């Protein structure tokens, strides 16, 4: 009969291997990143999400010693890019440049293919950009109260353009309708550029456009600005009141841009990325570039950003439902 082998050496080997794996994982997190990081943008190159993501990615590349490479994966209102990141390995090497569109998409699409509020990790908020309520000069109003009165006197006849059904520009108008009780007609376009072009031409009367797109036309006298949609005035247009100041209390809509990761990304990596992003947002050249875009740096902790995302999802769901907007 052969002598039985002791189990102790085997158990020691297994315990040693487990300890080595844990130690290796902690070492990898502490030294993150050790290879290039992919940052997926859900829109085509050149848009505000892409521009801001590239600005921050460049600073992360400089400060963290590895390239943060932007990959544009447009489609389905940014859902295709978000889906790809949500399904990627949670190791910090695939990240997602998020935006307000992702919170709207949770109710706009019956099956967006990912859970933005609970199925991805919040890393950092980059910046916020207000929209600007603008009208064609032919519209006989000079302020928000006159705009509301004009719309109520002409129910269904006042038009507001947008960059498409379910966009933040569209839903800014829908929220305005809900909060003021006016009846206006939405005119969707395939993007902000053709919408603003028709607004300048007088084919439509008004628009809640992104600040970077609308402001140059206001400054050039082609459009009249009535209010900004943020809770505070914009440094880019300090003389333009907020909608809340102009008589729509509680109105606060801003486009925003941030960074998310696959669910389960190690906390040490999330915290490290958050710290580096917030350092980048404090740099004078970054703040100058954001200001040129009409944006304001908005650093947050991962926990605060996570709370912000959940609040945005909850905020837009009833607006989407009331608007009847759908993409499916």
Please identify which CATH superfamily of the largest domain we are dealing with: Bordetella uptake gene, domain 1
> For the report, how would you describe the main beta sheet?
10 strands, mixed
Please count the helical segments. Answer: 11
Report the end-to-end length measured between terminal Cα atoms.
Answer: 72 Å
Secondary-structure-derived class? alpha/beta
Gyration radius over CA: 24 Å
- Count of DSSP E strands? 10
Oligomer: single chain
The CATH class of the largest domain is identified as Alpha Beta
What does the overall shape look like? elongated
Helix-residue proportion: 40-55%
Count of individual domains:
2
Description:
This protein is an alpha/beta fold and 328 residues long. It has two domains: 35-129 and 255-323, Bordetella uptake gene, domain 1 (D-Maltodextrin-Binding Protein, domain 2, 3-Layer(aba) Sandwich); 130-228, D-Maltodextrin-Binding Protein, domain 2. The protein is 44% helix and 19% strand. It has eleven helices and ten strands. It has helices spanning 8-30, 48-64, 79-86, 100-108, 144-153, 168-180, 192-201, 211-219, 267-281, 284-292, 302-323, and strands at 37-41, 68-72, 94-99, 120-135, 159-162, 185-188, 206-210, 224-228, 254-262, 296-297. Strands 1, 2, 3, 4, 5, 6, 7, 8, 9 and 10 form a ten-stranded mixed β-sheet that branches. The radius of gyration is 24 Å and the shape is elongated. The mean pLDDT is 91.
